[in-house]
């Protein structure tokens, strides 16, 4: 592997799709969360309190316009469904025809006739499962307002199933949705506040440009996907309210729902406020929320669209899928798996592994396996790194297709939020407690420094044990162009950059032997003695000292060659590139200045929602 010539050490690329999912992570996470009374943030926070007999309210929201026959078919299919013995309400919203601006529509008589036929249909329609309500508009509001104004939940126990008039539902649709609500909303171990609903349409569309094809393993019935469905969408109350409020703010401040790299942004630029999905998609992206989807063989679904001529289709396109009939599947196929067995996909249809939270030395190994790419793992320390700087780093990682990293931070809501969005984290405090030999004294600032260094040293230990090369980098450092690389030298196993806190250990039997057999047991002592002498002690300084003591040759990286310190003044964008592949700055640099410098370099990637400006899919 190591030739006589100097070779480049290019680093790591990653498509999450190849990763394995360790479902037991969820259960171990749950145990920790429940057994620790001081644990005030929980991934399953805000569980809706149990409702006796699952006595929730279910409202059908039918959005109609002027398509009489479509609506008739839609209502017939809704009435033919099995509602068990539940009460289900029907709300029909009939949009008005356009007056053409001055009150006199063209073909007014014909349009009035159409409207009256629509009203006759709805009035004459017998709905025996609950209340029927008809909302007949006075003017044309379009699809956006039809959707957004259809619902303001009256409690956390009210659900809306939104159906456009050219849809047809399976007789089994309600049984399925009810079961889904009971199993995933009212079951505490499956509930997640970041799931916003369920789409019954057959998944077909991937909005991220150059995203993956939708491919699921045989036998996958239910999975999670970020994209909203408009052909039969169940909405959960809290998340819908959140969206409505978010929409208000953005409308009021004239912030457009632009999200680069998304096909739907192109739709918005063309159709503007005639459609609503670009708004919802932008909201979901910034919050990192997910939607349930189903997958049945032979292009079947619980809800199909006949794609009749209207706002979305110039002329009738015909049904998108085949409807699941009453007897077309045995009830076993609707079985609800525990949430921890389900797969999650983002807007690129890239698999996401949420909630990888490492709290102990032993939990690190399996996560390393899910993360490594080309047997390399990057550990990013978030100590003294601002939240927005961390978010910007993650956007840059996405852009550069770097996925083989693990974040190290202290227990905090931010850290858990990153984990549930699919970025693996090590919780420093818990991790340290699992290394039982060391005492943790949170009051003593020296001890805190020691602890931080110990965590990193043990992370490297586990990484080398698994035979991976490991980087330890600071969150106040950004790769540009591609991940930082430097010329690897066959003589050296260890590389250190003292001004940027850059550390690299190349996987080799010698590196492993030194670290595990000779170095790790001395780390605590060494750190303590340096701190007692009031010497500055950073991870790389101490490791360099220790390795030198053991007679190990280390390679010093000159950061002025491989990177640029943006703290020393304005940097020209053109000065980056070639060998200069990183920018870094000190933890003391002010946020405004960091942002300014990174903007100048074109690597500030956050928008006004403080989320990534773009979705970047990689094949
Ligand atoms: C169900 O809830 C409604 C209002 O939320 C209440 O009026 C009704 O009595 C409840 N039924 C049962 C069986 O608890
Ligand atoms: C306004 O009214 C006139 C008739 O009074 C009609 O011809 C025209 O189409 C209407 N619409 C618009 C947008 O001008
Ligand atoms: C899934 O099923 C299809 C056809 O039903 C088959 O061609 C394919 O090989 C199966 N894939 C797996 C992974 O079993
Ligand atoms: C809640 O869900 C879990 C996992 O799916 C399951 O094992 C458990 O039986 C469910 N609890 C109830 C009360 O249904």
Automatic annotation (TrEMBL):
Gene3D superfamilies: Spore Coat Polysaccharide Biosynthesis Protein SpsA, Chain A
SUPFAM superfamilies: Nucleotide-diphospho-sugar transferases
Domain of life: Eukaryota
PANTHER family with a match to the protein in the record: OSJNBA0004B13.7 PROTEIN
Name of the molecule in the record: Uncharacterized protein LOC107425642
Gene name in the database record: LOC107425642
């Amino acid at each position: 592997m190591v030739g006589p010539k100097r070779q480049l050490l290019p680093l790591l690329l990653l498509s999450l799709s190849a990763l394995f999912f360790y479902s037991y992570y969820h259960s171990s996470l749950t145990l920790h969360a429940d057994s620790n009374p001081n644990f005030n943030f929980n991934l399953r926070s805000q569980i809706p309190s149990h409702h006796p007999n699952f006595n929730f309210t279910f409202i059908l929201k039918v959005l109609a316009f002027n398509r009489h026959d479509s609506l008739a078919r839609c209502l017939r299919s809704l009435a033919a469904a099995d509602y068990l013995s539940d009460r289900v309400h029907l709300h029909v919203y009939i949009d008005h025809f356009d007056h053409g601006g001055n009150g006199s529509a063209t073909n007014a008589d014909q349009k009035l006739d159409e409207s009256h036929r629509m009203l006759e249909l709805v009035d004459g329609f017998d709905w025996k499962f609950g209340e029927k309500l008809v909302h007949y508009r006075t003017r044309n509001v379009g699809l956006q307002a039809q959707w957004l104004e259809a619902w303001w939940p009256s409690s956390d126990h009210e659900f809306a199933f939104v159906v456009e008039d050219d849809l047809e539902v399976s007789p089994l649709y309600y049984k399925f949705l009810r079961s889904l609500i009971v199993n995933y909303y009212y079951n505490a171990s499956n509930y997640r506040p970041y799931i916003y609903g369920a789409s019954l349409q057959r998944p077909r569309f991937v909005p991220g440009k150059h995203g993956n094809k939708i491919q699921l393993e045989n036998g996958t019935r239910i999975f999670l996907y970020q994209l909203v469905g408009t052909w039969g969408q169940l909405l959960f109350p809290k998340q819908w309210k959140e969206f409505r409020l978010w929409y208000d703010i953005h409308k009021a401040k004239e912030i457009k729902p632009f999200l680069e790299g998304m096909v739907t942004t192109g739709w918005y630029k063309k159709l503007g406020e005639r459609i609503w999905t670009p708004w919802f998609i932008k909201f979901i992206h910034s919050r990192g929320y997910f939607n349930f989807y189903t997958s049945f063989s032979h292009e079947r679904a619980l809800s199909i669209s006949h794609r009749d001529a209207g706002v979305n289709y110039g002329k009738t396109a015909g049904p998108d899928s085949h409807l699941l009939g009453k007897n077309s599947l045995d009830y076993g196929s609707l079985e609800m798996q525990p949430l921890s067995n389900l797969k999650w996909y983002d807007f690129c249809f890239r698999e996401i592994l949420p909630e990888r939270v490492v709290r102990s030395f032993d939990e690190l190994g399996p996560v390393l396996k899910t993360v490594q790419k080309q047997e390399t793992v990057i550990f990013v320390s978030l100590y003294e790194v601002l939240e927005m700087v961390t978010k910007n780093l993650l956007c840059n990682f996405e852009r550069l297709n770097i996925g083989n990293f693990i974040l190290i931070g202290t227990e905090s809501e931010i850290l858990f939020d990153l984990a549930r969005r699919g970025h693996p984290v090590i919780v420093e405090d818990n991790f340290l407690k699992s290394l039982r030999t060391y005492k943790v004294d949170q009051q003593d600032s020296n001890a805190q420094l020691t602890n931080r260094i110990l965590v990193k040293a043990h992370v490297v230990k586990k990484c080398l044990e698994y035979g991976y090369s490991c980087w330890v980098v600071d969150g106040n450092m950004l790769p540009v162009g591609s991940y930082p690389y430097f010329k690897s030298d066959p003589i050296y196993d260890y590389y250190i950059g003292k001004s940027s806190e850059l550390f690299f250990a190349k996987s080799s039997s010698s590196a492993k032997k030194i670290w595990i057999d000779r170095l790790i047991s001395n780390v605590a002592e060494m750190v303590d003695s340096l701190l007692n002498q009031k010497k500055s002690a950073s991870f790389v300084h101490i490791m360099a000292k220790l390795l030198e003591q053991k007679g190990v040759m280390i390679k010093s990286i000159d950061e002025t060659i491989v990177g640029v310190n943006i703290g020393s003044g304005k940097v020209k964008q053109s000065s980056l590139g070639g060998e200069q592949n990183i920018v870094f700055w000190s933890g003391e640099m002010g946020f405004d200045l960091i942002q300014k410098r990174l903007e100048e370099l074109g690597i500030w990637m956050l928008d006004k929602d403080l989320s990534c400006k773009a979705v970047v899919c990689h094949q």
